[in-house]
Specification:
Helix content is 30%, strand content 25%. Strand 1 and strand 2 (49-50) form a beta hairpin. The protein has a 7-stranded mixed sheet with strand order 7-6-5-8-9-15-12. It has one domain (40-264): Vaccinia Virus protein VP39 (Rossmann fold, 3-Layer(aba) Sandwich), CATH 3.40.50. The chain starts with a helix and ends with a strand. It has helices at 2-39, 74-87, 104-113, 158-168, 209-214, and strands spanning 41-42, 49-50, 53-55, 62-66, 96-100, 116-121, 129-130, 143-148, 169-176, 187-193, 199-202, 217-222, 234-235, 255-256, 259-264. The radius of gyration is 25 Å and the shape is globular. The protein is an alpha/beta fold.
């Protein structure tokens, strides 16, 4: 009799506890998803999950730009994801890469996945070879991959640089050559701009037409091609840049696409 009474009391308690567990699970899942979308992002380079930092260069603040662990920015994460997409279709282990103006984020990533990995720069000391991108010393058809991120906007004779990149690539080789794209139309400054880290031009989306003049195929990857959890967009108000804004092809708004062109010889 005593056991029946205990069981009669215990059953509704178990049901209530089960209901509470379901409510807590659903509530926490909802809060997690809400928190994930609004406040936290995932860095594919280092595996960090959480809030990203705001970057504050002279050109204006960019919110949610930097990974709080490894410091990678929007463009580094997008470029890394593009490399991963490319590696789904080709095996890089027997290939060679020339990495110009190498970022420390990518050195440790690229070196193990290529048979030959060479770094180069015109001025930096911590590279394998000192090179002028308009006068490369390498023989024709030397590399399978060429990588130069945010470099061509610093070079006055960029068409000569593109010709040199194509020359040292093997037939079918790839060049990944992103630049900071601001608006639709490219503007040539004629000289280095001290407000933009020595840029000699402001590339627009039409800048990639120059790549089509040199390479047989150009594919443009964009921020919108990947999951928003990686935070690949540029959040900045470009109308507040400190230089003469009438010279630049600005886009309206605060949220902007980033782009990564993959060129094939």
């Amino acid at each position: 009799m005593k056991n029946k009474i205990i069981e009669a009391i215990a059953n509704p308690i178990r049901k209530l506890l089960g209901l509470i567990r379901i409510i807590v699970y659903l509530g926490s899942s909802f809060l997690y998803r809400l928190f994930q979308v609004k406040n936290c992002y995932f860095c594919p380079l280092c595996g960090y999950y959480g809030r990203f930092k705001t970057e504050k260069p002279v050109t204006g603040a960019r919110k949610n730009a930097l990974c709080a662990k490894c410091g990678s920015s929007e463009r580094h994460r997008l470029q890394y994801l593009v490399i991963n997409e490319i590696r789904k279709t080709i095996d890089t282990k027997e290939m060679s890469m020339l990495h110009f103006a190498p970022e420390y984020y990518f050195k440790t990533i690229f070196k193990p996945i290529f048979k030959t990995y060479i770094t180069a720069d015109l001025e930096a000391l911590n590279v394998d070879v000192r090179q002028d991108l308009t006068q490369l010393s390498f023989k024709d058809n030397t590399f399978d991959f060429f990588y130069a991120s945010h470099v061509l906007e610093h070079i006055k004779n960029d068409r000569l640089a593109l010709s040199e990149i194509k020359r040292v690539l093997k037939p079918g080789g790839m060049a990944i050559l992103p630049v900071p794209v601001i608006g639709k139309n490219t503007v040539e400054y004629g000289q280095e701009d001290r407000h933009e880290f020595g840029h000699v031009r402001c590339p627009g989306a039409d800048y990639f037409d120059r790549y089509n003049e040199v390479f047989s195929k150009v594919r443009i990857y964009k921020s919108s091609d990947f999951d928003q959890k990686y935070q690949l967009y540029l959040y900045e108000d470009r109308t507040k840049w400190p230089d003469n804004i009438t010279q630049r092809p600005f886009e309206a708004g605060e949220k902007h696409l980033d782009m990564v062109p993959v060129c094939v010889k």
